[in-house]
Design a protein that fits this description.
Structural class of chain A: mainly alpha
Largest sheet of chain B: none
Radius of gyration of chain B: 31 Å
Radius of gyration of chain A: 19 Å
Largest sheet of chain A: none
Largest interface: A-B, 52 and 35 residues
Structural class of chain B: mainly alpha
Number of strands of chain A: 0
Mean pLDDT of chain B: 81
Number of strands of chain B: 0
Distance between the termini of chain B: 20 Å
Order of helices and strands of chain B: HHH
Oligomer: heterodimer
Shape of chain A: elongated
Strand content of chain B: under 5%
Helix content of chain A: over 70%
Strand content of chain A: under 5%
Distance between the termini of chain A: 52 Å
């Protein structure tokens, strides 16, 4: 049995246990997926109280709609998709801009020198603070896609399913996010040298 | 690990930066709280559903009781008004409209499915 089949078997067992109202099953489901949902929602709304409220809403929806889950995707992808749409609705209600107007990003990809020292950069707390601030300033959807990809290590194909976007759009959003952050890094390393 | 490029220094830095960021994490008792909330849901919903059904039934009975004295005059007036209507034309128009709606339903695009 490969890893994908193993995950599917685990998902199936867990869903059946929750639907059969077995004690502790839903708690296990929440434990397994709470980090993904929390990261995703928090990256979109960036407000602790809203995050908690929306995460509760997401898991109540998951509980209410679980009998409709047809195992056509991984359970985490399905839950991620519910979280994505729940967070998106909140942002739309607040009428925040989801996608910004982009400046030309092609040049910034070349701004990091080849002799860039990764170890030194990783140890540099000031640099990290700047990167964190730059990530927080990304538009909500781009920020969320970046988090799913780098923090939760979800593949581009799965991010596309969660965000209901073509894979090309996800790649383009990642490219633009990286370009924006590379620019910040280039400025930061330039300042420090 | 997903399809990130392990040899890309910027990817590595970004991954490290995101992991070391003071990220918001779910509280330790979140899963237990959610399980309790979800367990309360069907019970609360059952009470609400029962109350709504009972109220709907009472409302229907009340409407029938209030409307009873007006039913006979209303029926005779309606018959009088509709007697002169062009019924064959109305039936044909309704049939055409129904057929068009049916065609819409049959040829509607399939809803997107999860991959």
């Amino acid at each position: 049995m490969n890893k994908g089949q193993e995950t599917l078997a685990q998902d199936r067992a867990l869903v059946e246990a929750v639907l059969a109202r077995r004690s502790g099953a839903f708690e296990t489901l929440v434990e397994r997926h709470q980090r993904l949902v929390w990261h995703l929602v928090h990256r979109v709304v960036q407000h602790p109280e809203d995050t908690r409220e929306l995460c509760q809403e997401v898991f109540l929806r998951v509980h209410g709609q679980l009998q409709r889950f047809r195992f056509e995707s991984r359970l985490s992808t399905w839950i991620g998709r519910i979280a994505w749409h729940t967070a998106l609705r909140r942002i739309e209600r607040k009428q925040l801009p989801l996608v910004p107007l982009d400046n030309d990003t092609s040049a910034t990809l070349r701004e990091l020198a080849d002799d860039f020292n990764l170890e030194a950069a990783c140890a540099d707390t000031q640099l990290h603070e700047r990167l964190h601030a730059a990530i927080d300033e990304l538009p909500p959807l781009r920020r969320a896609i970046l988090t799913l990809y780098y923090l939760d290590e979800i593949s581009i194909a799965e991010v596309a399913v969660i965000a209901d976007m073509p894979e090309g759009t996800v790649k383009s959003e990642l490219f633009r996010a990286r370009a924006q952050l590379r620019k910040v890094l280039a400025v930061a390393t330039g300042d420090m040298s | 690990m997903n399809d990130q490029r392990p040899d890309d220094k910027f990817d590595a830095l970004l991954r490290h930066s995101l992991r070391s960021a003071p990220a918001s994490e779910p509280p330790p008792d979140f899963a237990r709280e959610m399980a309790a909330l979800a367990a309360d849901q069907p019970e609360a919903a059952a009470v609400e559903t029962w109350a709504v059904r009972a109220l709907c039934g009472l409302a229907a009975v009340a409407v029938c009781l209030v409307a009873m004295p007006f039913v006979n005059p209303l029926l005779s007036r309606t018959y009088h008004v509709l007697a002169g209507a062009p019924w064959p034309l109305l039936v044909v128009a309704g049939g055409v409209f129904g057929a068009l709606k049916l065609m819409d339903l049959v040829h509607a695009p399939e809803a997107p499915r999860l991959r």
